[in-house]
Amino acid sequence: MTKTSMRGLLAAVLAGGIITGGMSGAGVAHADGGGVELEGVSNGDCTATIKVTNYTNSTFFQPDWWFAEENDPDMVNRTDIPATMEPPWREESGIAWPIARWVGDPPLRSGLAPGVPEWDSNNNYNRNAQPDGFLTQQTIDLNAVSGAPGPSADGTKTIYFRIKTGPQEGDRLPNPQQLVVTGCQKPGGPLDFGSLDLGALVP
């Protein structure tokens, strides 16, 4: 396959124009061992690790994310590109709806174990190509994001993330997951004595 045809294929895949099957389970973590699973973990230091477990033979499932303060149901649910968008919502080449931030740089996407043939025009899509799953992950520092909102009074920031791209519509996870990320206190902020036994300090 030429580079030109592969670029065209990728654009169509991200926009959902290649395969539009109606498998059930879109928007939830697939418990049957097929498709993809999406998970977020707060690391306690104002960073979040987003994980994609890929059971398919496609590398085109790619999550995006945004802060709770940026949550716009119209942008989240649109199936077209509006005339105007507020950051982080933007138009991404080949995708027919608004996208927020990709996860990390280079962006997180579904991965393949060594030796697994990748889905392309010569290899059919297989949602169970990797029965044990293949994990890829990226960690994002919420304090380092340009224009990031400040933390809550208890030092948290809330984000949403999803997978709305990929070759098989039924294997995407378009319903946003919410993650409360802890450890975002401002420098010099109040200390958390919740786990400190002051009695142990008294001689």
From TrEMBL:
Keyword presence, Signal: yes
Record carries keyword Signal: yes
Domain of life: Bacteria
Keywords, ordered alphabetically: Signal
Signal peptide: 1-31
Identification of the protein by name: Secreted protein
Species for this entry: Gordonia paraffinivorans
